[in-house]
Amino acid sequence: MKDTTPTSDTASRRPTPAARGGRPRRRKLTFDRVTFFLAFLGVPLAIFVTFVLIPFVQAIYWGMTDWRGFSPDYTFVGFDNFTKMFQDDIFVKALRNVTLLAIFVPLVTLTLALGVAVAITLGGPSKGPVRGIRGASFYRIISFFPYVVPAIIVGLIWAQMYDPNAGLVNGVLTALGLDQFDTFAWLGETSSAMPALMFVIVWGLVGFYAVLFIAAIKGVPAELYEAARIDGAGRFRTTLSITLPAIRDTVQTAYVYLGIAALDAFVYVQAMLPNGGPDNSTLTISQRLFNVAFAKQQFGYATAMGVVLAVVTLVFAALVFLVNRLTGGGDSEGKTKAPGFRARRAAAKGGAQ
Amino acid sequence: MSAIAADRKSASDRKPTSDRKLTRAVVSSDRRFAAISHALLILWSVIVIVPMLWVLVSSFKSTGEILSSPFALPDHWRVENYAHAWTDASIGKYFLNSVIVVVCALFLVMLLGAMCAYILARFEFPGRRLIYYVMLAGLTFPVFLAIVPLFFQLQNFGLLNTRPGLILTYVAFALPFTMFFLYSFFRSLPHDVYEAALIDGAGDWRAFFQVMLPMARPGMAAVAIFNFLGLWNQFLLPVALNTDQDKWVLTQGMAAYASSQVYDIDYGALFAAIVITVVPVLIVYCIFQRRIAGSVSQGTFR
């Protein structure tokens, strides 16, 4: 075990050749040091391996068995679960639904979040340097609000909002003279259930990504804006030519994580459409998986669904990276960006959800 | 990061761009931009606030009032809805469970995450990169892949439907996020102070707890807030792994209460329960909202 600091050795204060050369060197393995490493690295890793890594690895094997859980015996069935899955109309429908979610939720959320972030940071007075809008912090606080509300509560609030008779949505629409919505069941019609669900997810998430983008925009060097002003660029032009290219990688990271969140969407659908919606029009893979596992006890089959969900997630992430790369974004600055990216990725995920 | 900060400082020191250089067309387009910005933000604020206000007002109404007139204020403000939600719907009990589980998990994950990040960030040893990438994978894969094996893993340990089991699972799944956020933080801390501590005779343990950890406090605070929100709002893990009704957490209890409402409708109490659930997080948010915005930018630029 070595220390990254070349000069931090205390066992001997004499400069050794290694220290002079600035290279890390070996330190004595004292009892103190061994217990230190065991506790600091061993304990967290043990918990991580036991409750995250092993289940992930087990899932891949169990996905290829017909295991039903409470009996100890099972047979290895290879890819049978997967062929069965793709012949199952309900699962295929769930796959289609989550694909729709992964396409539209990030698109709408990020467009809105960018709109809010740009308006807050660049919508200020037209004279002088580019400045934030009046009341920026108020708008920022308000738009972040839904993100701190537990997602299950967001779902419950909107389930009430969409209520055909007593909900506020129909109340507002009829007050505006749209009488056809008097008793319209937003979550009960195949045509409207999915868009209504998407709207709620967007409502819950926009604030976080708006704040993320505000931070990214504030990190754009002010010189760039100043130069653009001197060249006679207005706010619209500045946004398109300076702001958007500058925060491109943040947008990409946000896109990946929003897509992953949308592919899951479990909390929202459980709160609003626990039975998969009208004609399974909002059923998600996660909901199907949960049902097959914990209601029908087909654990092998359910785990196989988890594997498919993971593969879909990885394919989605790869697609986003590919598109960004092909359209000219990505690693132009090379390796120096890597640590920043990790942290951004962690930040874009926004906590331990 | 420091380069950007320096850029911004030097830019703000300079005089603003002279307005004479801007054409009239640019100024008027800027005005349009500002007007559109305001309109957009006001519209969005209304869409955010109105549902919350509606829930708040409805929580003081009777079921009849809610069903007949969604817009109107209540005849008299029924505070008793809150008492019903707290006791009849057991929201009080679930609230306490949530507090216990989240506080324990938060403390553990902050401690273990900081320790792990510290080792990975500041020591060179074989397997370091492997551990780093394995944890990165843990951050990327969906929890749903693991949920069934996790269920049986907890059962094997006798931890299913127990608070310690739920706490450990929370810790395990929040660990990668915590580690990655703090990793960059520990990397950026200066070496001199650490060396000084060692020269003064501190061992590795004391150097961490008395010197390095206090120096990482801003980063710790930011991660703690995000972890608090994430864990308090956690739904999937408790629903799958904690089915004993006496140990339900708030999100679980709320979902169950809302679905039971279909047969036994007391909308006023339902809305009151929603308010009870939301208010604590809103208070935490309002106190710490500056730090949240700041930590997002830290995570972005580091």
TrEMBL record, chain A:
It comes from the Bacteria. The lineage of its organism: Bacteria, Bacillati, Actinomycetota, Actinomycetes, Kitasatosporales. This is Sugar ABC transporter permease.
Automatic annotation (TrEMBL), chain B:
It comes from the Bacteria. This is Carbohydrate ABC transporter permease. It comes from Streptomyces citrinus.
